[in-house]
Structures are given as structure tokens and as C-alpha cells.
Design brief:
about 140 residues; mainly alpha; about 45% helix
Length: about 140
């Protein structure tokens, strides 16, 4: 019975436990008693997730540069979501595919269109023969 999954072993124990007892069947099948008595809790508040995701979409639509931390702060300002946790907001934003729009970096170049005097390039045409002769 070593090749069977825990779910299969649990089904065997469930079927035969009224006749032979749970502890004896778990020993024979090789299923720990803790696995037999384990009941997954599941998500307690899964019904509210849709409501939270709708609110997150609404906030993210107005503030496209907001990440999950700012979305969480905005959501907490609403009376219906005062007690929401940051990790829950992070998980729901990832699941819903909500991402912050990162602003593009602007290239800062030399501004040559100004009214000030332009100084000549003194290095142009000069032959540099040793280190530290010209400093730019």
C-alpha cells in the first residue's frame, strides 16, 4: 500500500473503519492518524474576495501607479474594509492581475537652447601626451 496516495488510503479507511476501527485500519494501510483526522479549513472569507477585487479594480482604475501597498491603504480608508490585511490585498491583486503602471524614466540631456553664452571647447584639436593633462 506504499504506492497509494493519502486520499486513496483515507477512502479505504473510511469504507472499512465502521467494521474494523479507525486506528487499526490506519495502521494496516499505513496512514498516520493525524492525516485521518485532518480537516482542511479552507478559505474562511472566500465570498468577500469578489467584493474586495471589485473595489481594488475601482481604486486601481483611478490611481494607475498604485501598487498593492497603496491600494491596501486606500482600501482601509473605506468603512467596509477597515480590517483587511496587507497580505490578503497582495494575494488578491496578484490573482486578479492588477499591476501598477510604472512611469517611464525621462532622459535628462544637456539643454543647449538657452540664452547664456556658450564656451568654446578648449580640448578640441589639442594633442594629449600624458595622463591628467586635460580634465573634463
Amino acid at each position: 500500500m506504499a504506492g497509494l496516495s493519502s486520499d486513496t488510503k483515507r477512502a479505504i479507511v473510511t469504507t472499512l473503519s465502521p467494521t474494523y476501527g479507525v486506528q487499526r485500519m490506519c495502521e494496516l494501510v499505513g496512514l498516520p492518524l493525524s492525516n485521518w483526522y485532518y480537516q482542511p479549513t479552507g478559505r474562511v472569507d472566500a465570498a468577500n474576495d469578489a467584493r474586495i477585487v471589485a473595489a481594488l479594480h475601482q481604486i486601481a482604475g483611478r490611481h494607475i501607479t498604485y501598487g498593492y501597498r497603496r491600494l491596501w491603504q486606500e482600501l482601509k480608508r473605506r468603512p467596509a474594509f477597515k480590517e483587511i490585511g496587507k497580505t490578503r490585498v497582495q494575494r488578491l491583486t496578484q490573482a486578479a492581475g492588477i499591476q501598477a503602471h510604472k512611469p517611464s524614466k525621462q532622459m535628462h540631456t544637456t539643454q543647449s537652447q538657452h540664452g547664456f553664452r556658450r564656451y568654446p571647447n578648449l580640448v578640441l584639436g589639442r594633442v594629449i601626451t600624458r595622463p591628467d593633462e586635460v580634465w573634463a
